[in-house]
């Protein structure tokens, strides 16, 4: 019984420890979205508004690829 409780405790601590990493990834993703929006605004003001959507799409695709590990 004691070893089973220790295993559950270890699994619970591992899950709680991973929560910090998940939160860090969320903040990194949020920063990526903000950078994509700023990039789109800069592209728009440079006189080429047709590239705004493409710029946002490319930036978000790159962020997702990096999060997936590709």
Automatic annotation (TrEMBL):
Transmembrane as UniProt keyword: yes
Protein keywords: Membrane, Transmembrane, Transmembrane helix
Organism (species): Brevibacillus fortis
Transmembrane segments: 21-45
Keyword Membrane: yes
Name the record gives this protein: Uncharacterized protein
Domain of life: Bacteria
């Amino acid at each position: 019984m004691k070893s089973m409780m220790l295993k559950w405790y270890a699994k619970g601590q591992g899950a709680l420890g991973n929560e910090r990493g998940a939160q860090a990834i969320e903040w990194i993703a949020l920063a990526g979205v903000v950078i994509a929006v700023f990039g789109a605004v800069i592209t728009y003001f440079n006189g080429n508004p047709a590239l705004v959507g493409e710029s946002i799409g490319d930036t978000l695709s790159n962020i997702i690829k990096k999060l997936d590990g590709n």
